[in-house]
Amino acid sequence: MVEDFKKFAMRGNVIDLAVGVIIGAAFGAIVSSLVADIIMPIVGAVTGGLDFSNYFVRLSPKVTADSLAEAKKQGAVLAWGNFLTIVINFLIIAFVLFLAIRALAKLQKSEAAKPAEPPKLSRKDEAITEIRDLLKK
Q1: How many of the other CB atoms lie within 10 Å of CB of 43?
Q2: 129: Cβ–Cβ under 8 A, 6 or more apart, which residues?
């Protein structure tokens, strides 16, 4: 059973998947930082500092706080602003990933469009070609 597990774990697909997950997580952190640290401050500046993350609806009469964190401590709240912020972040991240994948696809397409160089003939093939050309003359 241990040998079967070793064979399974060392197959190329499993290792490729593991590498993909690790790189995906690292790339996700980069994109999240791009959104949180670069794009959202610009959006905030354009919208006059509008921040949806603190908007909520009180579902309990005991909730009197004005900030979401304090309101959650007091009772039930519907944090629709936080949800809206996460949806906006998702849309921005999805758009950035779309642009990155699109650029990568164009790069791969341009690489594939380049004509491949013909293989260099070996000395033997060159000699045969010369003989053929001489015989044609």
Answers
A1: 13
A2: 121
